Amino acid sequence: MSQKRGRVISTNNGRKQVSRVTVRAKEAVEAAGGSVRRVHYNQLGFRALLKPEWFEKKGRLLPKAARPPPKLKDKVDSIGRLPAPTKPIPFYTEEKEAASAPT
To answer: Does 2 fall in a domain?
Structure first.
């Protein structure tokens, strides 16, 4: 799959988190058995996600995740997480319930 705009944030087992995606690209991923979640990061959030050592080197804390502006609210599914998640984010409510259940 080629992508001209946006960045792929994380991939695992056919699940993708992207900043922007076209309808055709999203349909292609879902037809192949994957899923796509559109997340919002601003410029500072991308820097914190891709280069967290930059903040540590300067003695700064990681910034909080920014909410999308009103114009973009309907174009994103969720707000990006900072620092980057170490475990996969559940995409569906069944996965959320399974992840929160005690083992």
So the answer is: no
> Rounded to an integer, what is the distance from CA 28 to the centroid of its chain?
19
Q: Which two tokens stand for residue 41?
A: 């990061």
Give the C-alpha separation, 10 to 67, whole Å. Answer: 19
For residue 96, the tally of other CB atoms under 10 A from its CB is 12
Q: Strand (E) positions, the chain?
A: 8-12, 15-18, 35-40, 78-79
Domain presence at residue 59: yes
- pLDDT tens-place string over residues 33-72: 888 888 888 888 888 888 888 888 888 888 888 888 899 8
State how far the Cα of 1 lies from the Cα of 32, in Å rounded to an integer. 11
